[in-house]
Amino acid sequence: MTKRAPRSRDTKLFVLDTNVLMHDPTSLFRFEEHDVFVPIMTLEELDNNKKGMSEVARNARQASRTMDEIVSSCPADIADGIDLKAPSHELATGKLFLQTEAINLALPPALPTAKGDNQILAVVMHLVERFPKRPVILVSKDINMRIKARALGLEAQDYFNDKVLEDTDLLYTGWRELPPDFWDTHGKGMESWKEEGHTYYRINGPLSTGLLVNEFVFQDGESPLQAWVKERSGRSVLIETLIDYAHNKNNVWGITARNREQNFALNLLMNPEIDFVTLLGQAGTGKTLLTLAAALTQVLEAKRYSEIIMTRVTVPVGEDIGFLPGTEEEKMAPWMGALEDNLDVLNGTTGEGGDWGRAATRDLIRSRIKIKSLNFMRGRTFINKFLIIDEAQNLTPKQMKTLITRAGPGTKVVCLGNIAQIDTPYLTEGSSGLTFVVDRFKDWPHSGHITLQRGERSRLADHAADVL
């Protein structure tokens, strides 16, 4: 750093903690016109975390490479700051400052200077003294680090740029209720016809501009309606009535929809035109059961897909039980309790065949379901498969991209999760990969999303989800 305050006093100076760079290696370019300061201790901690094959180690290496490219592109003295405009392709117009001098650590006696976090705090205190008229802000994903900074009278913020939404209540649910006067306000000039058992409505009106493709609409009352938006052109939308999966004649592997949202979900899961489905919902709403029922029907009966591939993030709820023996499938087996529980339910619905018949069905079903670990997904291509990603809320947006891009021709990808149950450190409801894909895929004609509301597991599970 030079003795003079860099550039205008209106621009802020953000000091980055290591966990921000390890969480998002491109975070250096996310501060727009403001300046970024990277302490030596942050570089030390990046160096300590670069070994290994974990997501954190990969991000640490990527952050170091990004910084190397920026520093290499600077012909002048780096103490004056490196302009980020060219390296960021004009995403950022601020400067990057690296700590180029030893800073006298003037910390309160209670804070040990050997700790990396405290050395970063000392750098922030030093910068606040040096530039009294300029906002100096520590950016950290570590809550305790932010609390310590505020206790020392420093300004600290979380890194918000990875959040898709500020408030998860604003997250797209995939369905909406039509107002009682919908047909009065939208009936003018409406076209309606029947085709292959479905009724179609082409409507214009104030609501039609806000409806998204594959969004479900419903209306209760004397003439109830359940339909979904098939296409949108200008101010008009085409709405198609649904297949009623609540009726036993349309059962899916013996399973029928128990509520409205489950019916919506089955319409998405059973439609060959929909390549990507996301299902959100708390415990017991039927996400895994509906998906497996739809998968088995389309693999074993309709022969639409060749096999089912199921994967999930292996984040334990309690203490880890250590290394597991066996093949990839055997190692994944303890994580797949949900799969086994649901197969027991589905196997009981396949009709009476006695114990022998059920055992044969179970063996046939298991032969068509492959359990894969996320760790070996990179570089693979799944052709004509039904890919189920369970517990998807524990994935980062980058991991989610790696998984979804595995899909080859004829493959359907279904992501299941509950964003209220995130076990991965530094991931929140707003920055989870599941929230990310729900927001980014809405309005794509070949994807659909449903937030399941009502629990159907048992009255005990529903009550526990509400009161605990």
Description:
With 468 residues, the chain is of the alpha/beta class. It has helices at residues 18-23, 40-48, 55-72, 116-130, 143-151, 182-186, 260-269, 287-301, 328-332, 337-347, 354-367, 397-404, 433-441, 459-467, and strands at 13-16, 35-38, 82-83, 95-98, 136-139, 155-157, 175-177, 191-195, 198-204, 216-219, 225-233, 236-241, 276-281, 307-312, 369-371, 385-390, 412-417, 447-452. The strands form three sheets. The protein has a six-stranded mixed β-sheet. Helix 1 links the parallel strand 1 and strand 2. Helix 8 (287-301) packs across helix 10 (337-347) and helix 12 packs across helix 13. The longest helix is centred in the N-terminal third of the chain and has 18 residues, at 55-72. The chain is globular and about 75 Å long.
Q: What would the keywords be for this entry?
A:
468 residues, alpha/beta, six-stranded mixed sheet, 18 strands, 31% helix, globular
Quick structural gist:
The protein is of the alpha/beta class and 468 residues long. Helix content is 31%, strand content 19%.
